[in-house]
Design brief:
Blueprint (H helix, E strand, L loop, with lengths): L3 H11 L21 H30 L14 H5 L4 H7 L2 H19 L1 H6 L41 H30 L32 E2 L2 E2 L17 E3 L11 E3 L12 H5 L6 H5 L3 E2 L2 E2 L1 H6 L1
Length: 311
């Protein structure tokens, strides 16, 4: 576990010119009420993880922007060439089939769970980064998966095990600096694609503009997962749909739509004989005239005597 003094020493190693710079005083902010060392562990883990993701995203943005793609098909009808032809990297993400996006997000969630699991960490002789563990490490999955795992996510070829302690420390410092730079770089790419000219240094690179929402994982093509400020809905297909309220004389359809949405259709009142048995009462073992149910079962917070007689 690391302390504020360790953070000052680390900052000097990372950048002797800037040194320790914490204008928001995050090191002293115990946001989870778990103490200084655990809070610093959380911040260190977050920075390292975001830096790694940003480095992969930065390289991926360059590759996708230059029309490099796998030569085989993505699905039976869609090829990687089709995705590449959609535009810049953000447009290419939007062009992916919904199932592909869901699979990617679920896989990322699976990796997150494995990295946070105390049990999986212990199988590799590790501890959680907020409970005495080292930030940035990732457990081996070979000992906990029910099927063979040829390569681990972290250090798949075992290169770190061959490094000396001094070389490993230097590599970890370089990783943090490169991660910080990559976070700035990928955000600059996204800003320039969304608002052309917002990053003057990138104006001459020909970054393709993007008209979508960079923070939304799903786009208009993802019909049943589309998120809007008004809630989740499906695109208008010519039939009246409502998710906010039910008007008098209308009810929800018997078969709800995806994400709990319902198509609303007008329902004509169904006449019922006065002596007919209410189906809900019949299913629960009670028999009563449906008319009593229609007129209300409760009066003033108590069951109507007329209804009790029928029960």
């Amino acid at each position: 576990m690391e302390t504020a003094a360790d953070m000052e020493a680390l900052a000097t190693k990372l950048n002797p010119v800037v040194g320790y710079w914490d204008p928001m005083n995050l090191v002293a902010y115990d946001q989870f009420s778990v103490g200084e060392e655990a809070s610093i562990g959380f911040l260190r883990q977050a920075e390292i993880k975001h830096g790694r993701v940003a480095m992969a995203a930065f390289v991926g943005y360059l590759v996708q922007s230059n029309g490099i793609y796998f030569p085989w098909g993505l699905t039976g009808t869609i090829s990687h060439a089709d995705i590449s032809a959609a535009g810049g990297p953000p447009d290419q993400w939007d062009a992916l089939p919904t199932a592909s996006k869901v699979q990617i997000l679920l896989f990322i969630g699976f990796l997150e769970i494995c990295g946070e699991s105390t049990y999986i960490l212990e199988q590799s002789g590790m501890k959680h980064y907020m409970k005495g563990g080292k930030p940035g490490v990732y457990p081996s999955l070979k000992a906990v998966m029910p099927h063979p795992v040829p390569l681990d996510l972290f250090d798949p070829f075992g290169l770190q095990s061959k490094m000396s302690a001094e070389k490993k420390e230097k590599a970890l410092l370089a990783e943090i600096n490169n991660g910080r730079l990559a976070m700035l770089g990928i955000m600059a790419f996204l800003a320039e694609s969304k608002v052309p000219g917002s990053v003057p240094a990138l104006g001459s690179l020909g970054i393709k503009p993007y008209a979508g929402e960079v923070m939304a994982p799903f786009a208009a093509g993802d019909a049943f997962l589309l998120a809007t400020p008004d809630g989740l809905h499906r695109p208008d297909d010519g039939r009246e749909q409502r998710a906010a309220r039910v008007r008098p004389g209308r009810r929800e359809d018997a078969h709800p739509g995806v994400c709990g949405l319902h198509e609303l259709r007008p329902v004509e009142p169904q006449p019922q004989a006065s002596g007919a048995v209410d189906r809900r009462a019949h299913r629960s073992g009670l028999r009563r005239p449906a008319a009593a149910h229609r007129h209300g079962d409760f009066v003033g917070g108590r069951r109507s005597p007329r209804v009790r007689r029928h029960l």
